[in-house]
Amino acid sequence: MEKLEAARAAAWVRPERKAAVEPPAVFPQKELSYLANVYNALAWDFYKQHGVEVIEPAYEAHQEEGEVSLMITKHCLRFSYNLCPKQAKGVKGVMGQVRADPMILKSGDETYTLKFECRPCEMHVMGKMKKHILKSPPPSEIPASAPMTFFRQRPQ
């Protein structure tokens, strides 16, 4: 069995790599926000090579100030609670009274603002970077050799 495997491995020829497309394909957008999650130099170079002119660093780089969109979801709480302006269209007595005003979501000590984009049917969960995270260095500045501690149980 070992001789067969060795013979098979020796006879295998690696296929040649296809030539790179020249010129590189153009990325459909010229500007990328922090939502594109461009964090390292390789990603930055990739987008520059493909024609992107303005690239904002990823959220993890700690450069976004104030309240920003942390999550964009198709699941909408207004729709779940029958408060969707699209649902109210044509309903007598309700039309014009239901608006996609922002809502507040509380989870423990955390408070998030929910903003609604009804045309694409999206809900944005808005929040600020926590102060203790802003004070800590971004993940790229933490050395890979930094010691990690694993616990059998969650520390008290």
How does this structure look, described?
This protein is an alpha+beta fold. Helices cover 21% and strands 19% of the residues. The protein has five helices and six strands; from the N terminus they run αβαββααβββα. It has helices at 2-11, 41-49, 77-80, 85-88, 131-135; strands at 31-32, 54-55, 68-73, 103-107, 110-117, 122-127. The strands form two sheets. Strands 3-6-5-4 form a four-stranded antiparallel beta sheet, with no helix packed on it. The longest helix has 10 residues, at 2-11. It is extended, with a radius of gyration of 25 Å. The model has no long low-confidence stretch (mean pLDDT 84).
**What average pLDDT do the residues reach?**
84
**Class by alpha and beta content:** alpha+beta
**Helical stretch tally:** 5
User: Numbering strands along the chain, what is their spatial order in the largest sheet?
Assistant: 3-6-5-4
Task: Return the string of H and E elements.
Answer: HEHEEHHEEEH
Quaternary class: single chain
The span between the termini is: 54 Å
What does the overall shape look like?
Answer: extended
Number of strands: 6
Stretches where pLDDT is under 50 for at least 5 consecutive residues are none
As a percent range, the share of helical residues equals 10-25%
Strand content: 15-25%
Radius of gyration (Å): 25 Å
| Largest sheet data | 4 strands, antiparallel
